[in-house]
């Protein structure tokens, strides 16, 4: 049967109409844009195109940052997380201050503070927690409260600046106070901002958007309608009339042609990727090229193949897993010559989605290169040694010493804890020697940034090795750096580390120095003396952090209440001397803390006095 001209015209008219709809949709609501901090088109509810996304949260591209308005308040977008649909916002300050502080915002709200109530955004717990810890230093100097009442309220409770973050804590210690709290708040909000999370359950548009996406639609709204009604843009037009048999046959032929074309393209892509993969086997990985640009090949550790380490760990058998770090899992490996080593697989996550895996890879590469560059430049008996690495498209791996006797945390807080004072004093001295080596024997110096009892590994003979350099930093000043009056340089970087060991001065000022390691080491000394954990939620709230509990008892002359009962009558006065040293290590002002050389010298004197006391007792 021949095809009529009218049928052909109807078919091509329908085809052109569908293509027009798809083209219009693509150009309006699916365009890729480069508007910081987004790299690609953001998901609902955000959009830069009028009529797309959410009507109340349109993003305006501007230099140097994109802006967004929420409840008549304008914010700069500092960061966007696609995984949690969260934004990091920096508010725009009002320049008309009338002799008050600059912490005012262009808004019709009378209290001039940031209140997102009524919007589907809520301030994250982490931002609230940081603000709740801020306090002005005593004595409190109040501004003119009749002229600037908001300033007075902020000085008494800084969390009020974000509605819902009002502090519920009682009085805190003065170690975290700020001399000029209002200026600190202004600088903090401008540079680092605060994080808000989109709560889909509070957004009436979201339920409609979810139904739209189920139908393969794109969420938008009617920008010309007074109520801005929700619309679901569809890339396909459902037929509303019956199409005759001729058009149906042509549509079937067209669909089969497209299917064959798609199969051909898929086969071509598969062959191309397979050829690319096979050719890349003989090419050097980008991470390896980066390492060679920053370090001579002769100074880098040996390179293992992925197959070697896969065989050594029995294909990364879960039964061989000996630990989980912040950047991946650690497996026990046995090389062909019988040598036992620890193999860290930096982004080996079973069951993770492709998007999650790519995110983890990007996050882990920095730690991977950081640890190789640092460990390849150190050689000390009390530091974990790097035996090699593997940079492969299938994974990033580091090969370390395997320490057979667990961690210091296991020995101190486990049921089998029987460590004598002499053993604990030896461990304290060895750890201090490792820290002294990092701070004074390497150029540029290395700040470990995570000295904890869980990162101190114990050998069979009770000698120790400090490990896990994933968070460590070389004190090279490529970022914004300043030299203080005491000539101690620092690097400005976001605080990272383990709760209970993190230097409060570093957490407050973002200034990383060697004295940050000294603070963490002081907490480890307290663990050695008390057998208690650095943070224990079973203790009372004011005593939850071991550093605060220990310092409080020492100042009140009640040190015996926290000393490990196993050490009773076993130290000959050495515990009191080490307690005084630990107290100095956790001083609020970092300039009052001893450096690693002073710590080593003091521990050697204490150990010498303790040994002399033991000799006198043996003579009797």
Task: Describe the overall structure.
With 620 residues, the chain is an alpha+beta fold. The protein has four domains: 8-217, no CATH class; 242-279; 286-401, Phosphorylase Kinase, domain 1; 408-619, Transferase(Phosphotransferase) domain 1 (Transferase(Phosphotransferase), domain 1, Orthogonal Bundle), CATH 1.10.510. The chain is 37% helix and 15% strand. The chain contains 16 helices and 22 strands. The chain has helices at 5-29, 125-132, 149-156, 181-191, 204-214, 245-280, 286-294, 306-312, 354-375, 408-413, 421-440, 504-509, 514-530, 546-555, 574-585, 596-619, and strands spanning 59-60, 67-70, 73-81, 86-91, 121-123, 135-136, 177-178, 194-198, 217-221, 230-234, 321-325, 328-334, 340-345, 386-392, 395-401, 446-447, 456-458, 464-466, 473-474, 481-483, 489-492, 511-512. The strands form seven sheets. It has a six-stranded antiparallel β-sheet with strand order 1-2-3-4-8-5. It has a five-stranded antiparallel β-sheet with strand order 11-12-13-15-14, with helices on both faces. α11 packs antiparallel against α16 and α13 packs antiparallel against α15 (574-585). Residues 1-28, 237-243 and 477-487 have low confidence and may be disordered. The chain crosses the membrane at residues 247-270.
